[in-house]
Amino acid sequence: MNRLGRRGAFWSAASVLGLSLWSSGAPSVLYPLYAVKWDLPPVAVTTVFATYQLALVVVLPLFGNLSDLFGRRRIMLAGIALMAASAIVFAFAPNVAFLYVGRVLQGAGAGLAMGAATASLIENNTSRNPRSASTVATVATATGLTFALLLSGLFAEHLPRPLLWSYIVLLVLAVTAGAAVWATPDDRPLMTKRWRPQVPFVPTGFRTGFVISTLSVSLAYCVGAIFLSLGAHMIDQFTHNENTALVGSLLATSSACIGVTGLFLPRFHARALIWAGTALTLVSLALMAAASGFGSLPLFLGWCVVGGIAYALAFTGGLGLINDLSPTHHRGATLSFLYLVAYTLQAATAIGVGAVATVVSLSTAVGAAAIVLAVLCEAVAVLLLTSRRTATPLTNLAAS
């Protein structure tokens, strides 16, 4: 069989990242429909959403180093298979328990695939700019999420069986991505070590950089948790608009802004991107609170646009910094640890916001989340300032 070369492996890995976010975002526009169908409170919706992240929290510490041991290709294929299985579970779910099962499969699949795919992007990057790999990762994930949100909304509004078609498309895409990865070269290491569960760790020498990178990515993910788990509910409740095509288009605008912004980021230093992402995240949080308080669709659109740009800056900056710092032989494990922390915080955000929304009100939950995430922004800024003043290796490497 003819194998694809490095360029083919690079773009196949990008497709796996896009598939992972398509899988994650496919139910987001549909959560209000599930809530009506099965009479679910907000906390039930957000715990279904967070089950994905909780599955990742289990998978990443145990299996995050598998691609370092057995090759990126094999582990991506295993992750794709789990995401394909999740599509089948969601497509024919008879009750809410099946949504939890589907999210476990999605989380486990993404946990295996995303670290391996990101490492494959870095290692098969043929561009002269080493940061183009992190940019492509941002654009690929944004593209997958954009089309998942947009098409889910359109299908639900205009086709019969609104809870089916998004997952049929996901299944087809999983098969296509699997075929592409299957055609890439075998990248198993020459010397294969015996697998054992790996306690999360950060190699010495760049721990401050790892914390900054991880918090920057986590900031993007935590805002994304509110957006993806309750964004459709917020638009429905605060603006009284139940058109799923419009809701999907609004949510897709944010992820589209992530992808478009990502195209312009390779030339910028990672620290500059993190600074800009932190600042714009504060602006997006203010817009989120204002949109909820005034029930304004234009303000929701502003939140989607600014939040999408902020996500791209924070995510690309954090990922670019850790790519600069992590040693090759620990890259898969290091990236998996980054995703572990980011997804843990994302799950906590989703569950916390859902619990407050159920016990008190959705508007109170949104306001409280804005305050907590603003504090996280401040923490990132303090660490950036501290690392510069102490002239750690982070400063020298990130500026090179």
TrEMBL record:
Question: By its UniProt entry, which InterPro entries does this protein fall under?
Answer: MFS, MFS_dom, MFS_trans_sf, MFS_Transporters
Subcellular location per UniProt equals:
Cell membrane
User: Can the keyword Translocase be found in this entry's annotation?
Assistant: no
**What keywords sit in the KW lines?**
Cell membrane, Membrane, Transmembrane, Transmembrane helix, Transport
**One annotated GO molecular function:** transmembrane transporter activity
Topology versus the membrane, per the UniProt entry? Multi-pass membrane protein
Lineage top rank: taxon: Bacteria
Which SUPFAM superfamilies did the record assign? MFS general substrate transporter
One Pfam family here? MFS_1
Which Gene Ontology terms of cellular component type are present? Answer: plasma membrane
Enumerate the spans annotated as Major facilitator superfamily (MFS) profile domain: 1-389
Which chain regions cross the lipid bilayer? 41-63, 75-98, 104-122, 134-156, 162-184, 205-232, 244-265, 272-294, 300-322, 334-359, 365-385
Record keyword Signal present: no
Q: What is this protein called?
A: Putative MFS family arabinose efflux permease
What is the species of this protein?
Yimella lutea
